[in-house]
């Protein structure tokens, strides 16, 4: 093609819509942000109501384990479904499950008949629906955003997560202090708004219909692709360890503050420290990715997290705990965008759902383990002992990953 025709083609190409004016992407962000605020609000409410019903931090850990286990078990099937079927319909169905399950808790409060068994069932339903919502939404975002805007969109997504994490816990603690039903009404409303956004957005090309040979290999194709790569294997293992050590932090903070009779609003305020760290970390994504290679960045973030997890066991009071949680989450946005660049952007669309699901599943195995282990450690070692053990486990995983040549020498892929 001549330079003249190339210039003509370029001139005729429609300009990209600025990200802030992309109503499909922004609608998805508003809906999922509302759902996340409700999730973080009930992350405070569920442990508090279980402690009030049973007095046992171990049973609060069991709730987290059941919810996380359901999420992990459903992750690989979710990846297979979103690669083969209409992603929008999958998201609508999964959001409907989350609406119904959370609304049932609010109804039980209205009828004065909340039981631990019901809470476990709701945890399993909400946890099981999450991978379907998450995988379908991640692929829909790629269908409504221009490729050159994807990193900016994902960074905005991390801001959305951190904003929800900032507002959800204190709001959940405040509402729980007013009436125990209120956090669950808020969560139900958030899921309704996310469901409405999924119904409203109809992206072209987001159906996930099979294309050629990209759908060969079955449900475990993404797992095999990750595990055979010398760079990606230690990445996934290290992020698994991140979850083992990081998932119990909310329960540990709630447990420590509850033991010292801290009011529910101050517990929520302390947990918002993680969100502040995430917002600061989102602003650091671009400079960190420009300055450091992926392996160096991941190892540094992991070592820092190990230190701050252990430090959390040595402080007390809402402000100190909130400050340490802020430090713990500083590297999270850079790591999530790192995952997208290293993994999700390098595979064909027909395999992308399974690759996303495989990554989240392998990482997610640490969630039920961390929830169960965290509850047991809190039960038998107390807050300080539990957090020192978790920080030491993450430090050991970081040392192992630092010895993997594939991770140390990894470079950012070409655009």
UniProtKB/TrEMBL annotation:
The chain crosses the membrane at residues 28-52, 58-78, 99-121, 181-201, 235-258, 264-285, 297-315, 321-344, 356-378, 384-403. It comes from the Bacteria. It is a multi-pass membrane protein. Its main location: membrane. It holds the Pfam family MFS_1. It is found in: Cell membrane. Keywords: Cell membrane, Membrane, Transmembrane, Transmembrane helix. This is MFS transporter. It comes from Streptacidiphilus cavernicola.
């Amino acid at each position: 093609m001549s330079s003249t025709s190339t210039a003509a083609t370029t001139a005729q190409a429609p300009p990209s819509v600025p990200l802030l004016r992309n109503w499909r992407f922004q609608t998805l962000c508003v809906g999922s942000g509302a759902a996340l605020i409700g999730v973080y609000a009930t992350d405070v409410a569920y442990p508090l109501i279980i402690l009030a019903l049973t007095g046992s931090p171990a049973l609060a850990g069991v709730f987290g384990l059941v919810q996380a286990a359901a999420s992990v078990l459903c992750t690989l099937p979710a990846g297979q479904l979103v690669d083969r079927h209409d992603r929008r319909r999958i998201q609508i169905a999964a959001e409907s499950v989350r609406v119904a399950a959370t609304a049932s808790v609010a109804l039980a409060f209205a009828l004065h008949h909340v039981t631990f068994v019901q809470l476990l069932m709701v945890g399993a339903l909400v946890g099981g629906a999450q991978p379907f919502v998450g995988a379908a939404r991640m692929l829909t975002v790629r269908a409504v955003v221009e490729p050159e805007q994807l990193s900016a969109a994902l960074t905005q997504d991390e801001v959305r997560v951190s904003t929800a994490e900032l507002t959800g816990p204190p709001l959940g603690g405040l509402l729980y202090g007013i009436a125990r039903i209120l956090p669950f009404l808020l969560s139900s409303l958030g899921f309704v708004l996310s469901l409405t956004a999924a119904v409203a957005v109809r992206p072209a090309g987001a159906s996930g219909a099979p294309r050629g040979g990209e759908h060969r290999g079955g449900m475990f194709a993404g797992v095999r692709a990750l595990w055979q790569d010398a760079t990606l294997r230690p990445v996934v293992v290290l992020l698994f360890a991140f979850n083992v050590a990081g998932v119990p932090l909310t329960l540990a903070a709630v447990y420590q503050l509850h033991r010292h009779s801290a009011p529910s609003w101050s517990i929520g305020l302390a947990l918002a420290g993680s969100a502040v760290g995430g917002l600061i970390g989102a602003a650091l994504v671009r400079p960190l990715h420009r300055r450091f290679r992926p392996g160096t960045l991941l190892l540094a973030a992991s070592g820092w997290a190990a230190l701050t997890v252990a430090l959390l066991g040595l402080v007390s009071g809402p402000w100190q705990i909130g400050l340490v949680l802020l430090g713990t989450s500083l590297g999270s946005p850079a790591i999530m965008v790192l995952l997208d660049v290293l993994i999700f952007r390098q595979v064909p669309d027909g395999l992308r759902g399974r690759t996303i699901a495989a990554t989240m599943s392998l990482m997610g195995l640490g969630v039920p383990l961390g929830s169960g282990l965290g509850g047991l450690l809190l039960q038998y070692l107390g807050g300080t002992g539990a957090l020192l053990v978790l920080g030491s486990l993450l430090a050991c995983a970081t040392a192992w990953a630092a010895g993997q040549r594939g991770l140390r020498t990894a470079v950012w892929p070409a655009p």
